[in-house]
Amino acid sequence: MFKKEYLHPNEGFSQVVLIETEETKTLHISGQIGEGNDLESQTIATFKNLETLLKESNSSFQDVVKMNTYIVNFNPEVDLPIFRKVRKAFLGSENYPASTLVGVTVLGNRNWLIEIEATAVIDKKTV
């Protein structure tokens, strides 16, 4: 058996769906975006939004097991170093989660340059 909880519901989706069993909590975090004029500032704000949702669920980036990242008009030579620098500032330099990065032409709003979704698993025995 498991318990399912929907956190911060919006029109048509929830920011987080929490699945809880006796042993674990799994957080499925919807794609987060951030405000800013360029990719770096939006990436920092996006990671801060993810961090806020993780903390609200008594979790952290250490519990993240999977991240999917979408960057508009992705240019690997320019955008990847920016993304990696910001990610390292939030996640550290080891034990990265499984990760997918996809270049896209547009996101849900034309002003968004990046969107990141994440899955985190928390072992309730160590909490």
Automatic annotation (TrEMBL):
One Pfam family, please name it. Ribonuc_L-PSP
Concerning InterPro entries, the annotation shows: RutC-like_sf, YjgF/YER057c/UK114
What SUPFAM superfamilies does the record tag this protein with? YjgF-like (SSF55298)
What CDD domains has UniProt attached to this entry?
A: YjgF_YER057c_UK114_family (cd00448)
Q: Which family does it belong to?
A: Belongs to the RutC family.
Please give the name of this protein: RidA family protein
The organism of origin for this protein:
Flavobacterium bernardetii
